[in-house]
User: Fold this.
Amino acid sequence: MIDIKLDKTKVATHKRKKTKKSEPLEIRTSPYKINLKDVDYFLCLNDKYYAFDYYVFKDDLKWGGGIILFSIILHFGVGGAFSFEAPFPITAPIFLFGLCFIIKTFIIKNRKLILSRIDGVFSYPNYMSNKPVVIRFKEAALFFAYKGKMAIPVLVAPYTNVKFGGFTLSTVDVNSELSFYVWYMDKNRPLPPGDAFDAYRQKDFERRKAEGFPPPLYYSCGIPTPEATPEQQAEREQYWKDQEYYAPDIKRPKDSEIFNKRTHKSWNPCVFGEKEAVLANKWYEFTFANGKVVYMLTNEKGEGFLPPEDEKYEVASLTLKDTWF
Assistant:
């Protein structure tokens, strides 16, 4: 059993506010696939939990041992002795720094990343602590940081016990990693790609079916999330289709909305473009007099919706470079 508190009344509130750097929790690209051959690397991987342990004591032992050995060679290499005289003031701090790595290995062991799909709980290591961050995934403030001279992007989750830094979740293909987390944590969508999840797809489908196929929790930027079989897909689409929960992959105003027939019932159907050249699969941005912004996507036939005639608004189409088309 995974060691994580799932009681939603006890989940901590995120202590560090989201910033402009926080990435939207959306499926922005095709996520990486986890295959059966990779399952042994995980503590747990199924339709309920994704758990990975970042604790690698050998690395800390190597670093600590190497630094300690360097300090000893340096100390005696320049003529030092078993005393507090020079070069002890220089080599002692180096020795202690290496010793910290050794001590850390035996004290700080909780470095688990845990995603609880059903409960929507997200847990990751905190700064120099065995007490992890445990928050609701929808409140997670994930962001991209850039490290090194090449400014390589890494996916980071901020620490909550200090006001700086964060835990590095991924250093490779960060958009794909973030998209995987979002897809997996959207319990109303099918499980992500990868044959590691194949044994759980039917069970997960039956759960969502029993719940009445509720709509997705997070948007997708044009990435379909298909069911395991055409029959399951047809059954699910009686309740909702992927296209109804797409979002433009652009920086959007904080309180903007994505058009949905269920929530924008007063909007009127309309065909965009001429009969011979309809504007299919195109995003439109509606800006209303009160400042509200709504994004609407036409279908493959150029069919879309317009706000009620008594509302004042401006409409603009998004350019190709602004969207995933």
Notes: The first strand starts at residue 44 and ends at 45. Confidence is low (pLDDT under 50) at residues 320-325. The two ends are 43 Å apart (CA to CA).
